[in-house]
Design brief:
heterodimer, A: 492 residues, alpha/beta, Amidase signature (AS) enzymes, 8-stranded mixed β-sheet, 13% strand, B: 478 residues, 3 domains, 9-stranded mixed β-sheet, 15 helices, elongated
């Protein structure tokens, strides 16, 4: 590793940028201009941004610099970030990756946006994503696929693929994501980043366009656990506008980062290392586990016996909720409306058929079917029962271990187009992440190596509200390894 | 063939909260379209509902008032359907677990009979907006001011057997929600509206007939007429060999008939499921206890108390407890007068109510307050004026001509109780009517009334009636 002073600004972590801003080595405006230039230069090859908000960014940067001068700055004041285009941003297009909202300008800020603004971050733009967060490859965007900076033939993962690619290519030091079944962790893994999906209820969903309300959770994506800790500290907290947000104080996520891992009990679910897991990925994950042993952790094999039920349960619950959540996009009040509707039914059917892409349409149809009379008990209720069984599996596991570890995704990034015609194979990409959403637990992915040029992620799952522990476990690993510091050559 | 009618009512009472059930927007009636609809009411992307605790309190009050089980845990569900004035594409309602279940309400029927009507459930839900089909050059307008207004849907058991019973039940329920202060009861503005499920069966048949649902009845009169029409229609249909179809019908008040709303009943599948944006509604026992303690005296209890405490008839007590405000007015009058509850009842139910009706005023808006009315009655009591003269004084009070005593003085209405003054009036009357005197003395007793009238007239109504009677009798007998 290069010494810090020689590290190019765009290679610095948020913690390093924060220190540089504090020391007056550079201004937020300089930093912001640098990243805006990089976006201009590199985004055409990646398609990571749907909207770049130059004017807002520079205005926020100058305001941040003034706050610095007035000694009113916090650690994130003046740090540029990108917002996934699922978070409503006042006065800025919020498309959710959909034609339906291509011309939708949100009239308010999401709580996450509000909180990050209040912390003084600078918004560079809105990142690309699978339409309405439905997808695992970012190929389901109305704005076209995002490419993986490590290999432009590969997908970045999804649905937060734009955020992942932007951070990996050093177009922004950090970004927000959302995770309904793995949409933060899987792209973080496929792009060599650290990303955390907090406990359900830890981060407000107000202003975050809903896909599956009981599973959706926002979180940060950055290069290091320390950066995620900084961002999560600003994003998390009770919000009276979200009835499912939890009224519990937000700990200082930086405080426990350095805690030693001696005696840490890591559980390896045998179900996460069986059939379907790529052998090369398995070897990389094994090496990471070996590193944890060296750090003093005890590794125990555990079982999550209902793991194989997670995907079928998820693909009932998430579509069921989405079929209802997306009913509001009817062409009546905002969003896409078809030309010359001949009557009300025509307005509905054509506006929706034109506004939604094929994967969104598929999930709405699946969900409406699962909720319909005569099928509700067999599908939706059954899926909810499975959800309880899965939660029980984790509850029992956490009686034995502190964290659970395993691969984030069964393979490294696959090629663009490789799985688009095979939704089931695509869905299996989230086989290790989905159960965590069903249980509402926090999960983190950190980079632990490569297969060829393509990064491998290790998933850490914690007990409810154990985000600080997950960040600590990831951070200690990052103190003795440098996978997180590697940059894709084309974007170095 | 004898027919039996079976009716169940679903009543939507708009709860009198200041803001909507899931947003902070105002619920005030009559604002310009879409000026009271915030991002939540508009169903914008990313918005979330937060339950109005005041709506919960009101629903629990209602549940306790009808002796229902108030659920410690109830669940909000989504009822999914597309309609332009339904912004989210679903209505948030309660489905499997409502806030209150198994209540009952006493209704009074003719000839002193009464009946207990079961209330299956009461649940919280949000109202939809309004579609406006006029004045938009062939287009439809959507007003979402009403979207998200809290409603309590109150579902009765099919215990009602006639249109009259249905109306009695609806009136009783209306009285109850207004008493509790949880609904303004304004039917014209749609704050209290009714859907009626009506079916008929042959007397003694244990099986219910196929029902038709008549939607959106917003007056007691319409409920009665619509049900009566519907009963006739169904009986005629069956007697002619036809079959009643399960369908939704609308009442046309101009034609006085119900009409099918759709050609064929669509089998709506609302795809209900628990709303993941809202946690189950949990009401703790101590909260329920506190709400119970805060309940006002309910109509039935108040009526009973009026009968025992004031010695009123059941009828009078019923009338005086029609509304809380009327009962309060009555009791304030009795208290101010320190007694004479029957006299107070007669005046509140008589002249006061007549004047209120005439001026179309609410009791809370009466120009004569209880203290003023008591002041007037006190002058009857102490003989200063007669009951008849009091009516004139009341009219003057109503018109704002000052207080009772001032009016009596100004108009010289004080009753004449001086025996010699009354005697001289009587003597003059007798002297002026010798013929009638002769007839009376010859045994035509009926003429006594004639002399009373003449004497009263001569005294300008001011003579003390009792004294006048006594003295007149003495004088006539000679």
């Amino acid at each position: 590793m290069k010494p810090l002073s020689e590290t190019a600004m765009h290679q610095k972590t948020i913690a390093q940028l924060s220190a540089g801003l504090t020391a007056g080595e550079f201004s937020s405006e300089e930093l912001t201009r640098l990243f805006l230039e990089r976006i201009e230069q590199y985004n055409p090859s990646l398609n990571a941004f749907i909207t770049v908000t130059d004017d807002i960014a520079l205005e926020q940067a100058r305001a941040a610099d003034r706050r610095r001068q007035q000694d009113q700055a916090g650690p994130l004041t003046g740090v540029p970030i990108a917002q996934k285009d699922i978070f409503c941003t006042d006065g800025v297009r919020t498309s959710c990756g959909s034609r339906m909202l291509d011309r939708f300008i949100a009239p308010y800020n999401a709580t996450v946006v509000e909180k990050l603004n209040a912390a003084g971050t600078v918004m560079l733009g809105k990142t690309n994503m699978d339409e309405f967060a439905m997808g695992s490859s970012n190929e389901n965007s109305f704005y076209g696929p995002v490419r993986n900076p490590w290999d432009l033939d590969a997908v970045p993962g999804g649905s937060s693929g734009g955020s992942a690619a932007a951070v990996a290519a050093r177009l922004t030091p950090g970004a927000t994501g959302t995770d309904t079944g793995g949409s933060i962790r899987q792209p973080a893994a496929l792009c060599g980043l650290t990303g955390i999906k907090p406990t359900y209820g830890r981060v407000s969903r107000w202003g975050m366009i809903a896909y599956a309300s009981s599973l959706d959770q926002g979180g940060p994506m950055a290069r290091t656990a320390e950066d995620c800790a900084l961002l999560l500290g600003a994003m998390a907290g009770f919000d009276p506008r979200d009835s499912t947000s939890v009224d519990q104080p937000v700990p200082d996520y930086l405080a426990r980062l350095d805690q030693a891992l001696d005696g840490l009990k890591i559980g390896l679910p045998k179900e996460y290392f069986g059939e379907g897991l790529d052998g090369e990925v398995a070897r990389v994950v094994d090496a990471a586990i070996a590193e944890y042993r060296k750090l003093g952790a005890n590794v125990i094999e555990i079982s999550l016996p209902n793991s194989q039920l997670a995907i079928p349960a998820y693909y009932v619950i998430a579509p069921a909720e989405c079929s209802s959540n997306l009913a509001r996009f009817d062409g009546v009040r905002y969003g896409h409306r078809c030309d010359n509707p001949k009557d009300l039914l025509d307005l509905y059917t054509r506006s929706r058929a034109e506004g939604f892409g094929p994967e969104v349409t598929r999930r709405i149809l699946v969900g409406a079917f699962a909720l319909s009379a005569g099928y509700y008990d067999a599908y939706y209720l059954k899926a909810q029962q499975i959800r309880r069984l899965i939660s029980d599996d984790f509850r029992r596991a956490f009686e034995q271990v502190d964290v659970i570890a395993g691969p984030t995704s069964p393979t490294v990034a696959f090629n663009l187009g490789e799985k688009v015609d095979d939704p089931i194979t695509m869905y299996l990409s989230d086989i290790y992440t989905i159960a965590v959403n069903l249980a509402g637990l926090p999960g983190l992915s950190l980079p632990v190596g490569f297969v060829g040029q393509r990064p491998v992620g290790l998933q850490l799952i914690g007990n409810y509200f154990a985000e600080d522990r997950l960040l600590n476990v990831a951070h200690r690993y990052q103190q003795v390894t440098d996978w997180h510091a590697r940059a894709p050559a084309a974007f170095a | 063939m004898e027919w039996e009618t079976v009716i169940g009512l679903e009543i939507h009472a708009q709860l009198a909260t200041k803001s909507k059930i899931f947003s902070g927007a105002s619920t005030a009636y009559g604002a310009d379209p879409n000026t009271q609809a915030c991002a939540i009411d508009l169903g914008m992307p990313g918005v979330l509902p937060v339950l109005n605790q005041d709506a919960v309190r009101m629903a629990a009050m209602f549940g306790l008032a009808i002796g229902a089980e108030v659920a410690q845990r109830s669940v909000f569900a989504r009822k999914n359907y597309f309609y332009p004035d339904l912004p989210k594409g679903y209505q948030i309602s309660q489905y499997e677990l409502p806030v209150a279940q198994k209540g009952q309400l006493h209704i009074d029927l003719e000839q002193g009979a009464s009946k207990l009507i079961g209330i299956t459930r009461a649940h919280l839900e949000e109202d939809a907006g309004k579609s406006l089909h006029e004045d938009f050059q062939g287009l439809s307008g959507i007003d979402l001011n009403r979207a998200g207004t809290p409603l309590l849907e109150i579902v009765s058991e099919p215990d009602l057997r006639s249109a009259k019973e249905a109306v009695a039940y609806m009136k009783k329920l209306h009285q109850m929600v207004v008493y509790l202060g949880i609904c303004d009861g304004n039917m014209q503005e749609g704050s209290f509206r009714c859907d009626a499920n009506v079916s008929v069966r042959r007397q003694g048949d244990p099986k219910l007939g196929t029902r038709a649902e008549i939607k959106n009845l917003n007056s007691f009169r319409f409920v009665e007429r619509a049900i009566e029409f519907e009963i006739e229609r169904q009986i005629d249909l069956i007697e002619a060999g036809g079959k009643v179809v399960q369908e939704t019908r609308l009442y046309d008040p101009d034609k006085g008939e119900t009409r099918s709303m759709r050609g064929k009943e669509e089998a709506n599948d609302y795809r209900y499921f628990p709303d993941p944006d809202l946690l189950p509604l949990v009401i703790d026992q101590d909260v329920i206890a506190a709400i119970r303690a805060s309940l006002p005296e309910l109509p039935d209890a108040k009526k009973q108390r009026f009968i025992t405490q004031y010695g009123l008839s059941g009828y009078d007590a019923g009338v005086l407890t029609t509304s809380r405000a009327l009962g309060d007015y009555y009791e304030a009058t009795v208290a101010a007068l320190s007694g004479e509850p029957k006299l107070c009842a007669n005046w509140v139910m008589g002249d006061l109510s007549a004047f209120l009706n005439k001026d179309n005023r609410e009791i809370t808006d009466s120009p004569v307050n209880p203290a003023q009315l008591a002041g007037l009655l006190r002058r009857i009591q102490d003989g200063t004026i007669s009951g008849k003269i009091a009516k004139d004084v009341f009219e003057a009070l109503w018109a704002g001509e000052g207080e009772t005593d001032a009016i009596i003085e100004k108009r010289g209405l004080r009753q004449i109780t001086d025996a010699s003054a009354i005697e001289s009036v009587i003597e003059a009357v007798i002297a002026a009517n010798p013929e009638q005197l002769a007839q009376y003395r010859a045994g035509k007793d009926k003429l006594f009334g004639f002399f009373v009238g003449q004497a009263m007239k001569a005294s300008k109504g001011k003579a003390n009636p009792q004294q006048l009677n006594e003295l007149l009798e003495k004088k006539l007998k000679g």
